[in-house]
Amino acid sequence: MKEKISHFVNSPNLGLFIIRLFAGIIFVAAGIPKFAGGADSLKGVGSAVETFGIDFAPLLWGVLAATAELVGGLLIILGVCTRISAFFLFCTMVVASAVKIDGGGDILKDAGYPIMLAAVSLGLLFTGSGNFAVKKDSM
Q: What is the pLDDT of residues 35-73, one digit of tens each?
């Protein structure tokens, strides 16, 4: 009995699944309202790249960010295209972190949330989905 519990508790694949599940839910929950808010909401999100000097096509950038969150979050939950999704989510969270920091916010208080999600995304980029996935990463 102790061996079964030890095997279950010492499971990196289960840990990756739990991380994917909760991070994916957070990303999906963040992406839905961006689309639900329509073009104005998406333009507002897309204008975040102005922090990096990019001041054209805010609607496009907003659609890309919201798609990364909604579709990428779903794919991460399923364990499909985890590394690709994690890359785009990492980029999105780097922008979100920079906006919070550039706005004069406290790094831990205001930017901690997107920084943590960027770190989780970066970790998934390196680890992939693990064994509990619809389709394991081939990389």
A: 999 999 999 999 999 999 999 999 999 999 999 999 999
Its domain, for residue 43, covers 2-127
Reported as a pLDDT band with limits 50, 70 and 90, residue 10 is confident
How many domains are there within the chain? Answer: 1
Asked if 132 contacts 79 with a C-beta cutoff of 8 angstroms, the reply is: yes
